């Protein structure tokens, strides 16, 4: 099955008025352009399919009995991911690419039937919000500092604001529930190594191996995979692990366990 | 901007609408049919079109005039993440234990971008005056640590087997967080494929590159089910 966002992309691309090669602006080489198109097309797909993750979290939040406000937020997060996909598609279009791609395999979002509703929700919130989306904030923030065309920077800033909201959902939920029941904290701590290992494997499998393709490519969102890997590790070690420890979760031990597997 | 000028043959009315690039220029003859270009009109058209283009290029240059270096990008990105994670710290708590949280409060611009809610932004700005923090040192230490001590096995150039023909196997940097593997891969691809070719692009983007790699995968993947790590 194909994800085809060409129509939406063409409509939204009119807002990208200062892309390379447009009137009066320097262009990209074929090599740089192709790399940029691939990058944004990949983001288009990832953002689109991640909407389903928040859809599952919405159902879990109902079962767990969290507030209606938080349920509404989760529904909005799913909508935001779909909008990000259209925005990324518009960049593909503006760069001269085709905003369609095959849909990848969609792994099932676990409902964690081995745990109660609240613990099951918290496992997924930890993985999605406190880990994946917090890393996304640092990575996207670094990209906004490198992006050159003002209209593209504006687009990426808007996406970053949404991703920040997704991450904060998790951290603020932990804050709201603090102090966690000791048994619940212990059981969530058992899940942390699995979640951290999954995060690192996912990120390293997707981050490019190159150290950037030059300034022109960085200007439109193709930056260094080497720098992104540094940032991934530092975000985990200086932000995520201490943050989780603060709520009584054994994050240091979990991270040591993951590091012991020699992936990072 | 509307003006008219007479050519050798007719009166031409020109309408220039400034705004986003490219500037829109409409030219009509007296009978409202599109005006033909004439050789002696070209200087006028040059001014009409090229000058706004130059303005646009100048705006572009101004926008790019401050390019933060890699260390600054790294530091500010971490601050943004810390601002998000340190929920209470970003809202003014002074006794946070989250590493980097105070750094986040020290950089109001990062918090402003990273924090979705306005309260956090406002409070973080209030904190700026009192927060004198070693953010740069933290980042520098982190970078030094990465550069100096993290030569994990797959990332070490010495671990990439080179065969007798001098070219060797393609380095697998998929699990390498940093270090010499990535530049080595770039060199390998440059030697293997013609520059600027599709094959070179695919090669440099790493093993298993399927178009979904960028600087960030962004959208969260499905979380893992509970398991025990081996």
Helical stretch count of chain B? 9
The helix-and-strand class of chain B reads mainly alpha
Query: Strands of the biggest beta sheet of chain A: in what spatial order?
Result: 1-2
Question: Which structural class do you get from the secondary structure elements of chain A?
Answer: mainly alpha
- What percent of residues of chain A adopt helix (DSSP H or I)? over 70%
How would you portray this structure in words?
The complex is a heterodimer of chains A (264) and B (230). Chain A contains 9 helices and 2 strands, in the order βαααβαααααα. Chain A has 264 residues and is mainly α. In chain A, helix 1 packs across helix 3 (68-94) and helix 3 (68-94) packs antiparallel against helix 5. Chain A is globular and about 60 Å long. Helices cover 43% and strands 8% of the residues of chain B. Chain B has a 3-stranded antiparallel beta sheet, with no helix packed on it. In chain B, a hairpin with a 4-residue loop joins strand 1 (2-6) and strand 2 (11-17). The relative contact order of chain B is 0.06. Classes of the chains: A mainly alpha (264), B mainly alpha (230). At the A-B interface, helix 2, helix 4, helix 5, helix 6 and helix 8 of A face helix 1, helix 2, helix 5, helix 7 and helix 8 of B.
